[in-house]
Amino acid sequence: MDITIKPIITERATKLSEKHNCYTFRVSPQADKFQIKALVEQLYGVKVESVNTAVVRGKNKSRWTKSGLLRGKTDRWKKAYVTVADGQTIEFFSNI
Prior knowledge:
The protein has one domain (5-61, 73-84): Alpha-Beta Plaits. 23% of the residues lie in helices and 40% in strands. It has helices at residues 11-20, 33-44, and strands spanning 5-7, 22-27, 48-56, 60-65, 68-73, 77-84. Strand 4 (60-65) and strand 5 form a beta hairpin. The longest helix is centred in the middle third of the chain and has 12 residues, at 33-44.
């Protein structure tokens, strides 16, 4: 199974990383905590202490067009909160 992982860079996620050394990622819905931990340790070279996950529900969307009201829904996705060991950091922008 191929697992995708993508960092989330928002104000709230930045505050979490500064205060609690916790980083936020958008991951594949099928991924479990053990797979996420192994992938983060492999990609970023840090020691992961804990992984918490949350499933984010899809939002209802609608828009008006010439043919009338179109309704739909965005997909649900999984968010992972990864806490790394003290003294270690993940640099998302180091390769730019």
